[in-house]
Amino acid sequence: MFEARLVQGIMLKKVLEATKELIQEANFEVSAAGINLQAMDSSHVSLVALNLRSDGFEHFRCDRNFSMGLNLNNMDKMLKCAGKEDVITIKAEDGGDTVTFLFETPNQERVSEFELKLMDITSENLGIPETEYSATVRMPSGEFQRIVKDLGTIGDTVEIGVSKDGIKFSANGDIGSANVMCRQNTHADKEDEQTLIDMNEPVNLTFALRYLASFTKATALSPAVTIKLSKELPVVVEYKVADFGFVRYYLAPKIEDEEMEGE
What we know:
The protein is α+β, with helices and mostly antiparallel strands. The protein has 5 helices and 18 strands. It has a 9-stranded antiparallel β-sheet. A 5-stranded antiparallel β-sheet has the order 5-1-7-8-9. β11 and β12 form a beta hairpin. It is elongated.
């Protein structure tokens, strides 16, 4: 038996918004520790890792570890039926072939029950190694979303450079070029409005903007985003899910030679 009750049901809706564009089907690994998901997008260029710890749920029961194979678009359709204030409960029986979503209004005047068919999805656990990164930048998520959107109107790729001056985003395209520099800012009143840079060595890497644009769908989850960069390693873009989890995106950098061939 698995049962998890989330008072901030809207968080689950936001998590789905943040992941369904990149991955259509995935296994949610459920254990007593919480819910985990790891999946690559269909083109095998980016990876999504989701972690929701059991202690963030009002009630969490998992008698045995199991995989819940779900179509994320179908799950999203069901979650869209939940109101903003609704409490969401997820239930699944051992060995069953469906998962039940229960939506309750805060005053419990309305209780809706939706059943979603489980899928058999083969997936390999990709085992992401813990790595020390050359540069870690924490900045307002809305700012990052705006930069990615603006640069997407100029070119297809963005060069992200971190130096002692700040983090710089550059794009080139047929119509011209753009550079956006965000300097370290520790003076903002709210911590989430600060831009913090922790750098061991400068880095300069190029990434496809369309994937970064998909990552920014998670902006609604958290007021701040953390970006971790190292030479020749995938960038990590992380958004916190309240105080009990995270959504992390990984995207491999573009290699100079690939760009030359594409021209």
